[in-house]
């Protein structure tokens, strides 16, 4: 039999298996050996109790069945070029079979029985010990293995059909039983093995042949065994689904919905303001380094006191030399202002806010005044609800704050400089103004005149810090000299002394020298410092190095010879490195200094590693680069991780919350397992090289190396250390261009983070900065040649043109290239065509230098046969370039390109107007919202080429974007028929470019149609939703990484399951919700089975781009938050199906994988999910407690806002507080200690009270204070309780007092929680009564008759006006198929702009550049809030919504809300299925409202009051 014939047999076997079982063999895991299979089976199923009990026997029979197959597995394939050899197919099927058993005892028994039967056949194969098989024998082995595969397939189908659920007991041969088809296959297998036996007998005389034959036989045995296991796995799955409905309801905490709503408002502002994240990162770094008490002297400065307390001089200037501690002083002022705001005797109003920004010259973002204004505004929105509401109404887009002047006017002048009832002042501090862009800084100083001119209307105070020379610009623009404070040695000398003392204690070597020498060091450094902390820091590092390897006399000598001044000190430090480093080490250090000094942004650790790898032909890096930077070069460099941990914290021993032995005894079984292993972060560094940045430890160091006068320094006969700044610019130009054109350099960086994207992005900026005259003639020629290649050769255009947006194409950048290109030898050494192009270039019309690149981009946009590029960004780039080239100007106002501009831009390239040209032009028109014109061009495309069915898809995308969902569906149905009839393209292309995007789009349209009818899951919407799920599942079969589709399927099944859950529902309610006329919904158990099937499918599919991990691991990384409703859905399904241990195991796998990939933040978030699985859904609270404590009390309580690690740590602390309040009630013997634990946590948070406000976290406020307040109230400590709850009450009243009614529900609810905690139940009940529907301005009572239904259609949303809520929402935050954890981000990346249909996929060719097309369906519906701000949702498993709080139960200790039925279930012997609250907690029952009130009124104890009057009374009562 020829090789091709073997190929066909195996292809047919694979197809047959997929057809029968519903699972493709290619999607199954693959193993090389039987032992590898057995290990994986054991590892993935060891969480199951029954598996552990039966594993010995099961694994033994598995081994017996598959070991022979291992020996002969590949022989059956012969010379066939198979993608997956037979043994791999069999092993994968075996794994899939056993995993589907899910630990159910009966199913495991059935699998063992099937394997035992097949073992009798495969044992024959164990005799083979030779590979030289005859053609006939190889054919028989092939037929045996393919028959086994079909047995497995049919077993799988029988299990899926529920075959085993009809049997009360399971016999050994239950799958083979009386089934005629299975018996036929078994008979066929027997005949084949008999025939094989006869063939072997005929060949026994040939000894070598016989040996090989034994190996082959064993392979066949293994295949049979694996197939048997696969069939039985499904059996077990159906057995599990046959179990009756269980009490598996999830805890859908109301706090989740509330927090999501709280954050929604702020997220919109965050999107508009686009904060950089730099201020919190910088303040966090300062906090870590600050010595307690440092800078307190400034609080007594009369100028500062006057600036704070009076409005006469609202602008303050604080100056000091480099390294004098200005940033630390600003930190002190921030803390001081925050403390004053919380003091009842201070002149600073508690409504005041503090915001700040840091300027640094190592990044355009941190030099931009406009970005600083955005950062400050964002911080203010986090602390001042009134200001947040103002911005939400006053600013509607980026264009309104697109310049410094417009940002100042909208964000500050129109609010803070106008009369207002708000008494709060905004204190703004700006550090490092001398490092801002010069023009930006002058514009800011000019605008500050507005603050002075506003007089008493101003509620804005500005403090600026910088170097002394800036004062002249301030005076020139303000036309007066502001109050000033000069930092010098007379003021900060005491701070420096404390700093030296603290530094000595931290340095291991210095801390061991004599006390006398330590005192001398403190005295000498303080006296010589001249007020410069940076000088002291460098000197301490120098002395510590001496102390490590010298005598005390050498330390004293170095101390006495300490150079004066920061510049001299830095030179001294470099001389020290010069004398101690080898030539190679010095060269590496110089390269790192050069790249960090000239970097346009902070470099990643991996990029710096690549800098050094470029020097080695083999691409070898430096051993332990991070260790060198953190230790040997700590005085020069700072490394910043995404979790914020510093070097000292990474080296410090891990600690947790201070433990109580009695409490530990109370929490039994606290063994070190599961979560313990998951939380063991790297003992030293192991920082993620793709996210950890490297920068200089102080701006003064950057200034030193960027100063051309300093150059390099060296000891005698030692290598020089430093940066020759002007020569370095030439090196940066040369290297950046070489990174684009030289593939050998790219190969050297293959094991690190490539520098090519950085060089491709920055080369033009480096060209602009460099002085060509500094370069040698050889360098001028090399740079000129490479630059000509980069600009003119289309081969290099993909590398750099797709990385920058429209603002790259400027004349200042193009003009810098002309002198390099005009080099005579460059012209003479190139092609005639390129030489003519260079000669035609003129300095006055330098933008023509970009013409070849723009021509190339236009082809990528419009020409057929090219890889697709963004049809939104590219036309804009070309339009802007042409406008500027023709002498015009362009400013980004946010307006769309017009149709005329798009068409003119397309025609500029003079490309042939093919069908593809029209299609891509239509895509641009469509995505700029010109729908009618887009349709015209799509139809024109089809006129030119009716077979181009991608144009039909484009129209469907357009209809979906317009909201014409049914029309889009109808068109896609025709579209699919056209694809099926197309015989000119292969199936792989039709699937990826046609069917999959169409299926996904149809699913989205059906989902949107259902939402238009009803945002909740109902019987009426079920059929439409079911169609959506059908198409999502079809899409997933073709694209398993479409995790959004997975999420939507899970959401659907969970929602339908909720309709059938009995908890908290009467029989009548169940009947009404579950069925409507002829619609019969699946049972909850069936729904949960579907959810688990989805998860198992993900777990059974390996990522093609990361074979070590499964799709489920990536899915969990994407939905990593405990508060994601996806987590609750999975947890509820796992518990209902008895697979909680399995899900816990998969979370542990995902955590381990995240840590392996150096993603500690992802691991921390997933650990919170795991803790909830342990506590709320399981019965392993000791494991949950350990996770909460480890994450929440980690040595570094990071203060950086807007970070996942902050979310994880604060979330862990809140859950720890919730756990403590439950234990305090249930464990009465230790209640005092549980409360004490919470008090210590709160004290630690309040110890950072300045930072909590300073950092302006967008996270919800800590719940711990209210838990403690509720306990104090319960134990008679009423006044302490009121004081703890006061900030919550105040914040809620502020929200209720702003001019935005949309957030009133949030304010009322927050206020009611705080009032219940302190026992003010009359006012709390009044609030809950107020949160009810209103009819014609009058409150609706529960006793009122229902309102007549509106006329048909009037109350229905139009199909195009789709709203979403927590019950049903389609989100697409991450593009399907994209890596969940993006390692790099590019600005306006042309090549990665997501397309919303197969427009992109259809063009995708296997090109090697980084701009592969995306096929993301980016037409997701907007997340509009559809809450009607009335009613509540039960926190119990019923998850029911109610229009009134009448009859609701609210926990007085933790705020849990329950309906009457869930409340009764909580207090029953059976209890709730998910751990919510405690039956020992006291509950408030909300009485029925009988007094009617109007809008603007509230009922307190039966008395109607005006809301304003009522709020004023609350303020008086609580001293607000």
What does this structure look like?
The protein has about 1500 residues and is mostly helical. It has 66 helices and 21 strands. The strands form 8 sheets. The chain has a 5-stranded parallel β-sheet, sandwiched between helices. Strand 13 (about 1335) and strand 14 form a beta hairpin. The chain is globular and about 95 Å long. The protein starts with a helix and ends with a helix. About 15% of the residues have low confidence.
What are the main properties of this structure?
single chain, 1520 residues, mainly alpha, 5-stranded parallel β-sheet, 3-stranded antiparallel β-sheet, 66 helices, 21 strands, 5% strand, globular
Q: Give a count of the beta strands, DSSP E runs of length 2 or more.
A: 21
Q: Report the major sheet.
A: 5 strands, parallel
Radius of gyration (Å): 35 Å
Give the N-to-C terminal Cα separation. 91 Å
Gross morphology: globular
How much strand content do the residues show?
A: under 5%
Task: Extract low-pLDDT stretches.
Answer: 75-84, 127-132, 162-175, 204-263, 655-683, 1063-1067, 1073-1077, 1195-1202, 1247-1260, 1349-1429
How does the helix and strand content classify structurally?
Answer: mainly alpha
Helix content: 55-70%
Mean pLDDT: 78
Query: For the largest beta sheet, what order do the strands appear in spatially?
Result: 2-3-4-1-5
Number of helices: 66
Quick summary:
By secondary structure, the protein is mostly helical.
């Amino acid at each position: 039999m020829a090789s091709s014939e073997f190929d066909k047999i195996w292809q047919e076997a694979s197809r047959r298996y997929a057809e029968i079982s519903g699972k493709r063999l290619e999607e199954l895991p693959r193993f090389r050996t039987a032992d590898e299979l057995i290990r994986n089976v054991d590892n993935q199923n060891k969480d199951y109790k029954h598996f552990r009990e039966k594993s010995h026997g099961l694994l033994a029979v598995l081994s017996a069945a598959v070991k022979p197959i291992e020996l002969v597995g590949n022989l059956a394939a012969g010379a066939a070029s198979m993608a997956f050899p037979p043994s791999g197919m069999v092993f994968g099927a075996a794994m899939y079979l056993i995993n589907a058993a899910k630990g159910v005892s009966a199913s495991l028994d059935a699998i063992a029985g099937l394997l035992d039967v097949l073992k009798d056949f495969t044992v024959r194969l164990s005799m083979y010990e030779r590979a030289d098989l005859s053609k006939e024998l190889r054919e028989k082995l092939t037929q045996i293995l393919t028959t086994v595969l079909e047995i497995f397939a049919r077993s799988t189908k029988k299990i899926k059909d529920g075959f085993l659920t009809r049997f009360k007991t399971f016999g050994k041969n239950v799958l083979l039983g009386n089934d005629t088809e299975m018996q036929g296959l078994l008979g066929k297998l027997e005949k084949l093995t008999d025939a094989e036996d006869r063939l072997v007998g005929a060949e026994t005389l040939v000894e070598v042949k016989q040996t090989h034959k034994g190996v082959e036989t064993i392979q066949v045995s293994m295949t049979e065994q694996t197939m048997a296991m696969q069939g039985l796995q499904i059996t077990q799955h159906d057995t599990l689904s046959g179990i009756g409905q269980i009490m598996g309801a999830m805890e859908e905490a109301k706090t989740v919905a509330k927090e999501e709503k709280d954050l929604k408002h702020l997220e919109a502002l965050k999107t508009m303001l686009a904060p950089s994240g730099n201020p919190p990162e910088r303040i966090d770094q300062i906090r870590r380094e600050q010595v307690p008490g440092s800078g307190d002297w400034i609080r007594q400065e009369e100028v500062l006191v006057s600036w704070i307390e009076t409005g006469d001089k609202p602008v303050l200037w604080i100056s000091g030399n480099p390294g004098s501690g200005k940033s630390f002083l600003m930190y002190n002022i921030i803390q001081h202002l925050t403390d004053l705001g919380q003091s009842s005797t201070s002149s600073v109003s508690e409504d005041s806010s503090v915001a700040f920004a840091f300027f640094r010259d190592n990044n355009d973002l941190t030099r931009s005044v406009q970005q600083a204004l955005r950062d400050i505004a964002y911080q203010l929105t986090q602390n001042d609800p009134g200001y947040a509401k103002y911005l939400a109404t006053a600013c509607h887009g980026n264009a309104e704050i697109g310049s410094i002047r417009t940002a100042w006017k909208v964000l500050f002048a129109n609010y803070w400089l106008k009369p207002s009832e708000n008494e709060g002042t905004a204190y703004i501090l700006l550090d490092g103004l001398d490092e801002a862009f010069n023009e930006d800084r002058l514009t800011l100083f000019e605008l500050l005149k507005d603050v002075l001119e506003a007089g008493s209307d101003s509620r804005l105070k500005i403090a600026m810090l910088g170097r002394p020379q800036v004062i002249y610009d301030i005076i020139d623009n303000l036309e007066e000299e502001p109050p000033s404070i000069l930092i010098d040695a007379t003021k900060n000398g005491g701070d420096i002394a404390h700093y030296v003392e603290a530094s000595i204690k931290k340095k291991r070597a210095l801390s061991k020298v004599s006390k006398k020498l330590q005192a001398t060091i403190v005295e000498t450094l303080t006296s010589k410092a001249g007020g410069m902390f940076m000088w002291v820091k460098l000197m301490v590092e120098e002395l510590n190095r001496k102390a490590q390897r010298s005598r005390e006399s050498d330390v004293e000598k170095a101390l006495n010879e300490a150079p004066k001044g920061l510049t001299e000190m830095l030179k001294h430090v470099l001389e020290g490195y010069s004398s101690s480093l080898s030539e190679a080490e010095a060269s590496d250090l110089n390269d790192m200094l050069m790249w960090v000094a000239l970097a346009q942004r902070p470099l990643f650790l991996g990029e710096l590693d690549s800098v050094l790898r470029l020097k080695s032909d083999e691409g070898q890096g430096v051993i332990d680069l991070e260790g060198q930077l953190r230790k040997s070069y700590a005085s020069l460099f700072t490394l910043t991780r995404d979790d914020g941990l510093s070097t000292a914290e990474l080296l410090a021993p891990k600690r947790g919350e201070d433990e109580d032995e009695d409490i530990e005894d109370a929490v039994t079984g606290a063994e070190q397992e599961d979560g313990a292993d998951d939380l063991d972060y790297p003992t030293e560094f192991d920082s993620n090289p793709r996210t950890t940045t490297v920068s200089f430890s102080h701006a003064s160091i950057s200034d030193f190396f960027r100063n051309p006068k300093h150059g390099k320094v060296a000891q005698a006969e030692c290598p020089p250390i430093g940066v020759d700044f002007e020569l370095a610019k030439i090196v940066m130009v040369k290297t950046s261009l070489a990174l684009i054109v030289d593939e050998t350099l790219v190969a050297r960086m293959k094991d690190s983070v490539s520098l090519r994207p950085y060089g491709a992005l920055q080369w033009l900026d480096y060209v602009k900065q460099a002085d060509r005259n500094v370069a040698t003639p050889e360098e001028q020629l090399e740079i000129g040649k490479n630059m000509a290649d980069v600009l003119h050769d289309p081969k290099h255009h993909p590398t750099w043109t797709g990385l920058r947006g429209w603002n790259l194409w400027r004349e200042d950048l193009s003009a810098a290239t002309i002198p390099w290109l005009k080099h005579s030898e460059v012209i003479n050494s190139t092609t005639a065509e390129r030489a003519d192009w260079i000669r035609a270039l003129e300095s006055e019309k330098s933008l023509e230098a970009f013409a070849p690149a723009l021509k190339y981009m236009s082809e990528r946009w419009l020409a057929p046969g090219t890889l697709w590029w963004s049809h939104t960004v590219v036309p804009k780039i070309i339009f802007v370039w042409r406008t500027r080239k023709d002498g015009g100007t362009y400013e980004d106002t946010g307006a769309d390109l017009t149709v005329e501009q798009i068409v003119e831009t397309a025609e500029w390239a003079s490309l042939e107007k093919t069908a593809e040209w029209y299609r891509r032009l239509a895509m641009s028109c469509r995505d700029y919202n010109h729908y009618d014109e887009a349709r015209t061009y799509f139809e024109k495309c089809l006129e030119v080429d009716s077979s181009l069915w991608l144009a039909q898809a484009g129209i469907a995308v357009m209809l979906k974007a317009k909201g014409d969902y049914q029309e889009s569906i109808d068109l896609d149905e025709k579209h699919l028929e056209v694809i099926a009839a197309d015989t000119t393209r292969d199936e792989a292309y039709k699937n990826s470019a046609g069917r999959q995007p169409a299926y996904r789009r149809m699913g989205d349209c059906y989902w949107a149609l259902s939402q238009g009818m009803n945002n909740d899951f109902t019987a009426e919407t079920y059929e439409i939703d079911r169609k959506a799920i059908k198409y999502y599942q079809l899409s997933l079969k073709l694209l398993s990484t479409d995790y959004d589709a997975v999420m939507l399927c899970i959401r659907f099944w969970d929602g339908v399951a909720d309709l059938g859950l009995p908890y908290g529902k009467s029989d009548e309610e169940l009947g009404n919700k579950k069925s409507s006329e002829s619609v019969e919904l699946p049972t909850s158990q069936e729904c949960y089975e579907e959810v688990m099937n989805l998860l198992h499918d993900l777990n059974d599919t390996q990522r093609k781009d990361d074979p070590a991990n499964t799709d489920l691991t990536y899915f969990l990384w994407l939905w990593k938050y405990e508060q994601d409703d996806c987590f609750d859905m999975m947890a509820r399904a796992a518990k209902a199906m008895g697979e909680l241990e399995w899900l816990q195991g998969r979370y542990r796998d995902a955590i381990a994988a995240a840590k392996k990939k150096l993603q500690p933040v992802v691991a921390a978030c997933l650990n919170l999910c795991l803790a909830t699985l342990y506590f709320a859904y399981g019965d392993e609270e000791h494991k949950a407690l350990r996770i909460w404590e480890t994450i929440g009390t980690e040595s570094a309580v990071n203060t950086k806002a807007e970070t996942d690690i902050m979310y994880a740590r604060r979330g862990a602390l809140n859950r720890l507080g919730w756990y403590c309040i439950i234990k305090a009630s249930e464990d009465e013997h230790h209640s005092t200690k549980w409360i004490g634990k919470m008090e210590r946590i709160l004290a630690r948070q309040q110890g950072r009270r300045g930072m909590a406000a300073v950092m302006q976290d967008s996270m919800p406020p800590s719940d711990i204070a209210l838990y403690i307040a509720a306990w104090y109230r319960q134990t008679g400590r009423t006044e302490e309780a009121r004081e703890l709850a006061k900030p919550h009450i105040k914040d809620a009243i502020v929200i209720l007092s702003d001019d935005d009614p949309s957030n009133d529900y949030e304010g009322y609810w927050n206020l009611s929680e705080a009032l219940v905690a302190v026992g003010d139940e009359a006012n709390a009940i009044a609030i809950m009564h107020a949160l009810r529907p209103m009819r014609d301005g009058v409150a609706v009572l529960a006793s009122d008759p229902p309102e007549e239904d509106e006329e048909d259609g009037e109350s229905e949303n139009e199909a195009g006006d789709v709203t979403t809520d927590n019950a049903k929402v389609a989100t697409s935050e991450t593009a399907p198929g994209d890596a969940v954890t993006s390692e790099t981000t590019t600005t306006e990346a042309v090549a990665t702009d997501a397309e919303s249909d197969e427009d992109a996929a259809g063009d995708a060719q296997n090109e090697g550049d980084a701009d592969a097309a995306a096929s993301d369906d980016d037409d997701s519906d907007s997340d509009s809030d559809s809450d009607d701000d009335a009613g509540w949702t039960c926190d119990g498993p019923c998850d029911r919504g109610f229009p009134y709080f009448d009859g609701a139960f609210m926990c007085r200790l933790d705020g849990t809300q329950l309906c009457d039925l869930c409340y009764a279930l909580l207090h029953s012997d059976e209890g709730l299925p998910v751990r919510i609250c405690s039956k020992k907690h006291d509950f408030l029952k909300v009485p029925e409202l009988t007094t009617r009130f109007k809008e603007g009124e509230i009922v307190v104890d039966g008395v109607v009051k005006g809301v304003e009057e009522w709020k004023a009374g609350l303020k008086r009562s609580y001293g607000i």
